[in-house]
Predict the 3D structure of the following.
Amino acid sequence: MERLLALWVEEFATEQADGASLRVLSDLLDALVSVCPFVEPIRLGLLTLPLRGPSRFFGGDQAVFDVVRATVRDVAGVTPLLGVAEGLFCAELAAREGVVVPAGETDSFRRRHSLTVLGRKDLTTTCRRLGIHTLGAFADLEPARVAERFSAPVRVLHRVARGELAEMPEQRDKRLRERLRTARGETERPDEQLGFFGQRSASDDRAQAAARRLRHRLGVESVLVAELHGGRTPDDRATLVPWGAPRPGHRDEAPWPGRLGAPAPTTSLRHPVTVELLSHEGIPIQLGARGTLSAAPHTMVLAQGVRRQVRWSAGPWPMVERWWQAPRRRAHLQVLLDSGEAFLVSTESGAWWLTGIYD
Amino acid sequence: MFAFSSPRPPVPEELRASLRPITLATTKTIPLSAPWADFVPGRGLRRGSTVVVQAPAGHGGLSVALSLLSEASARGHWVGVVGIEDPGVVAMADLGIDLRRVLFVPRPRGAWAESAADLLDGVDLLIVRAPSRAAHGAARRLMDRVRERGTVLIVVTEPSAPWPLPADLSFVVTSSQWEATSRLTSRALTVRVGGRGSAQRSGEHVVHVPDTQGRAAS
């Protein structure tokens, strides 16, 4: 078996919300190709490259380690664990421990390990009861005896333990290459966005490419697309979701009882701002139990104490939703200020919120 | 008896005058919907041009800008919306904008010019609300890029922070008046349409944005 140099980058071994792990892996691949063209991504945080060629080129194993360490430090800003052994399974074990197994000693290196490295709890427990604790002891069992007792996946692991197979089936992330290609914009998964658009055209492709570039520049949450569904208020009916995120298949366009009619506000605040509505006497206005206001609005107090005269208001349109559960009492009010601006405000449990601007 | 033996009759002079390269003209402009098309030369937005919509805050600037998109979006053009923090998506749908072909970048975090430039490559129309006062250089670069890519840039501004460069076409809201019954129903906007060159025959027009259906109407 070929001696492999495995790089274990623990910091980027798990999925991260902003996709940093995949991005770092992609950058590492680009950088390490100059060390060895046969560098291979295995999983997030794990790469391998054959050691023989680079070792001859750089003049020794230690020189290769130095180059690889420096490259990873430059690209990812962390120091990787390096390990060398024959076969992917042993190379990963060596990398996690940071050891270099000399040529020809991989077999004894593998046999020393506990059965837990195979990652099968049932196997470990059963074998412990039989007095088998190490891979070596497990490997010495007759294949026929193992086949009698265990299922097919364990038979494969037994072959790994015996050194007949170089790697475990779960070691490689089978979707990784596809994901890397997608992240680099080399291919498009047709279901990424366009199941929704039906057929695609050249302009659709251009827009997708621009969105992908922008997402790379600003982050996953930066480019959004709109989705409409059922609901009463403008902010119930519409959501902005990150571009490329999976979306529900159907669009609910049925009329919704109690919906606020057109015109809808052109600015719909995702995080509503508290405001105060005061009566002519300066008393805060309350929504009564019967859905009426305690007085006519006269002044609206915006953030930082800015006071504006209310010229006219319409509503309230009360909504008691889910009366069969904990009731949620909301009401909406359209407010037209003396300055000519129109707002949609809502009230819930005694507070008033600015939810929309008719800009 | 042979096709070449009798020469074709000449095209009459008056017919020749009316013949124009139709396809070229349509690909060079992006269509506008009903009230706006009548106010603009060529009945559309010329590709590569910059359009400025100016109105005091809360007086219909955003509605006017969004209503300029509706016809183009319904005909399949892609639209980008940069720097408009909380777009009213329902209002956009009411205006006739096809939301399946709209990309939003609500918070470009200080990179509005770069985001706009990136998005220009992928869309046919781009709405931008520049942060407070746009720098002269950034505006110049963006307009150059728009001209080069053949996109239409629509800038939403306020009188207190105008766009630093002259635009090809401008819509300035001079007054707005809500009409209401038991609720707000429609808004009458007085809009001064102006611009450079062929857009010079400008004037003031009263349009309703939104009207009772949430659309734009004269």
